[in-house]
Amino acid sequence: METIKVFLEKGKDGYGVSFDALPNVFGFGETLEAAKQDAKDTLTGFVEVLKKHGKPVPEVLQGQYKLVFEFETDTLLDYISGTVTQVALSKAAGVNRSQISQYVTRRKKPRPEQRLKIVQGLHKIARELLSVS
Question: Which domain range does residue 114 map to?
């Protein structure tokens, strides 16, 4: 089974969707759930249109595939902002709070290593919360 990474990015009116394996295919949803559903519908429609016009279907879409959703860093930070403070995330991730603030406001984009630290910091916070009974 193929895996297709789906990137979610918050915009002014909702969430944009793009695919790592299909650079010219995009979707949109006003809410996160609508964007996820649109990603699925977009791929189904894309395959139908290609077949209708006798065009080759990309290999990744020829068999079964699963979608793995990933937030762009600024969208992830925005999404969790009502739940996790920048200070808590900074401590858990080992990333300077002012850097996190710059990522949230899109003044800077984190290097892949920094993004990984942020995601691991969120996972650490989640594990701590799950351990409370």
Answer: 73-130
Q: Are residues 84 and 66 in the same domain?
A: no
Give the three-state DSSP class for 131: coil
State whether 63 and 12 are in the same domain.
Answer: yes
Number of folded domains that form the chain = 2
DSSP result, 82-129 = TTS-HHHHHHHHT--HHHHHHHHTTSS---HHHHHHHHHHHHHHHHHH
- Is the pTM higher than 0.85? The answer reads no
Q: What pairing do the DSSP bridges indicate for beta strands 15-19 and 2-10?
A: antiparallel
pLDDT 10s digits, 54-74 = 999 999 999 899 999 999 898
**Unique residue bearing structure tokens 């290609």:** 50
User: Which residues fall within 8 angstroms of residue 89, CB to CB, at 6 or more apart?
Assistant: 77, 80, 95, 100, 118, 121, 122, 125
- State the burial class of residue 12 (Cβ atoms within 10 Å of its Cβ: 0-12, 13-18, 19+): exposed
